[in-house]
Design a protein that fits this description.
Blueprint: H1 6-13, E1 18-24, E2 27-33, E3 38-44, E4 49-52, E5 58-66, E6 69-76, E7 82-90, E8 93-100, E9 103-110
Antiparallel strand pairs: 1-2, 2-3, 4-5, 5-6, 6-7, 7-8, 8-9
């Protein structure tokens, strides 16, 4: 995770983030629960919505489904730069990848 602030790296490794995703047609309900916060997000594929990251960064964007992959393209409100997120289920894992300003990160969640 080069390019990521050391404090943010340490926090990310200890946040115990758990994600629950429920889908009904093109509507999604996502629960994110961690050591630092718990939130629930509702969105519809292709419809722009507002979201705030755990570090307080505000985003605006939308999720789209491409086959078995969810792709989120968001714009940071503070600097207008894009952040792309990919979520794909592989076996019993949810693999979530991020790309921002040439820095790529990946996080793997195990099904419980």
């Amino acid at each position: 995770m080069t390019g990521i602030n050391m404090v943010k790296r340490k926090l990310a490794t200890h946040d115990n983030l758990k994600i629950t995703i429920e889908q009904t047609g093109d509507k999604f309900h996502v629960k994110e629960s961690s050591t630092f916060r718990s939130i629930e997000i509702n969105f519809t594929l292709g419809v722009t919505f507002e979201y705030t990251l755990a570090d307080g960064t505000e985003l605006s964007g939308a999720w789209n489904q491409e086959g078995d992959t969810l792709k989120g393209v968001f714009t940071r409100k503070d600097n207008g730069k894009p952040l792309t997120t990919i979520r794909i289920i592989q076996g019993d894992e949810l693999v979530q990848s991020y790309s921002y300003e040439g820095v790529d990160a990946k996080r793997i969640f195990k099904r419980s």
